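Please predict the structure of the following assembly.
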Amino acid sequence: MSSETEKILTTDGIPLEVSLKKAERKNKIKAFLLVAPLLLFLLITYIFPIGDMLMRSVDDKMVTEMLPKTFKSMEKWDGKELPPEEVFESFYLDFQKLVEEKRDGKLSTQLNYTKNGFKSILKKLRRKAKNFEEGNYKEQIMAVHQRWADVEYWRAIQRRAPAYTSQKYLKGIDMYKNEEGNIVSVEEDRRIHRILWLRTLEIAFFVTLLCFLMAYPIAHLLATLPMKYSNLLMICVLLPFWTSLLVRTASWMILLQQQGVVNDFFVMIGLVADDSRPEMMFNKTGTYVAMTQILLPFMVLPLYSVMKTISPSLMRAGKSLGGTPFVAFWKVYFPLTIPGIGAGCLLVFILAIGYYITPALVGGASGTLISNQIAFHMKSTLDWSFASAMGLMLLAGVLAIYWVYNKLVGVDNIKLG
Amino acid sequence: MALPKYTETRYRVWHYFYITICTCVFFFLIAPLFVIFPLSFNAEEFLSFSEGMKNLDPDAFSLRWYKDMIYGTKNPWGLAAKNSFIIAIFATLGSVLLGTVAALGLSSRHMPYKGLIMATLISPMIVPLIISGVAIFFFMAKAGLAATHTGIVLAHIILGTPFVVITVTATLSGFDHSVTRAASSLGSDPVNTFMKITLPLILPGVISGGLFAFVTSFDEVVVVLFLAGLENTTIPIQMWTGLREQLSPTILAVATCLIILSTLILVTAELLRRRSERLRGINR
């Protein structure tokens, strides 16, 4: 049997199977070569830099490289009592070298991250160290400031010895490694990041819910109206979709300000007194209202494209079989729209969780999200490794949702407009 | 949506309730855009309706802020507009070129690891912009491209290609491959086949992908905020600074122009979508 199939040859005398495989491979390579330029471009300019963020977020070589002698001599120190003279001497030598190279400022910033109070005692040390005599550095340094005689500060320095650290990730969820090496939470009143994470989740969740509640009826209306009306109404969804995000945020800033149109209207209908106009911007309300309107089209469009495929005769059949319109809707129509609901909700949630511009403009202090914190550390504190760590934590969350989205809807099924 | 005569009262009430809700939502969606329009003609320096405007007094309206937008020296809107257009045009060309070629490969049924590669190519659209911004900034700073037009164009190509890949693969999904085989059998080489047969057929998808890429670049602010220097300022950056610092009516004049631009883009996109649906034989 098999000898018979082997006999099928192409005109060149090569077995057909081999020839087909060759053609297949050629096609595979051809297809791959078409994708290769974009793939390569994205790998170099985008995917690897995200990997670079990962490196930065755990990288702690800076202090390791600034105090090489100190960390070498600290290896033998058990950390229970004040370190021996040797450690003080090498710290003095390392520090003098940094002062010469004008890098002591960076060291003081870095050590201050580990323990508050390093900035001032390093400044003092720099001033006094010029007049140090050779030998007995331990006493000379301890005489500069009482904190230098505090073993806690030396332990803080020792904690910066490893070249890699998970400290930035712990800081992102308001935790840290204490002196004994246990991971603990910071004091209750300083847990700012946890509040931000929770607030981001809360705002993303409620914006998604609001978008769903508003988008479902209008998507249904658009899908059931005759074409000539629905095309006209579709413009109401598509015009905001295509309009600049900043323009839409600007319009909300005008509407929601204290002397703005919404407040004017409230005063006119007598809901509030003219002198007690409520603050609707620079707080959570502003973020909710503006984000819901801006993200609403992203919910309407997937819902609409699913509802459009549902035949109206299904509802009629449901009703003719004895269901009231509500029962027919709940048992027939609603289950059919679930793929659209899933797609819309996940899309809006993913977009909302990483929102930056709108909360920064209308959110004030109580309406900002985790993205704003990342931008703050990138631009103001310049703690890029912390910004990277928080960015990656956010990314991990988004990728998890994206994975679910891919399982439920499939990326290749995303429809635009 | 006229109701049949036999409808019971409670369903009649429900129906009007439903129509009211829909009207409110449509109003919520579209009304904020229209508040900008009249206010941009305000003669005063306030961002709220003056008494004169409420009484439709012609003296309360002026083109003052449009003049300021064009001739004003405080805000470099001219430079910003020039930069925005240059960056968006080059970013669109780059995205369309890379995206279309990649989509052709992805639509081939021989493509290995299709799911994984598609997910990678789409990722800039899914990853939050702030993270993309940080990552791209690290790359551009290392490559010495921060605060250059080239750097911003490359960044916008990254953000724009997913849209082109999605729209073009969608168009190609309804593509009849026998026409290209027919062209080859008639002696056409692959490049000629692409230019004469494939491209004209997928053009609506390519153009609408290009429109998305253009709008993405033209409206992009997060990544540009990390990358741009003073020389590379764009319209979104100027708007961002203006909204954060001094909210002047000039911004509303610019916003009005942007709304007109987006209306034009919307009309083009809609015409293209309908044409491509007609070509694919989807008549709904």
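Chain B touches chain A through 93 residues (CB under 8 Å). The two ends of chain B are 18 Å apart (CA to CA).
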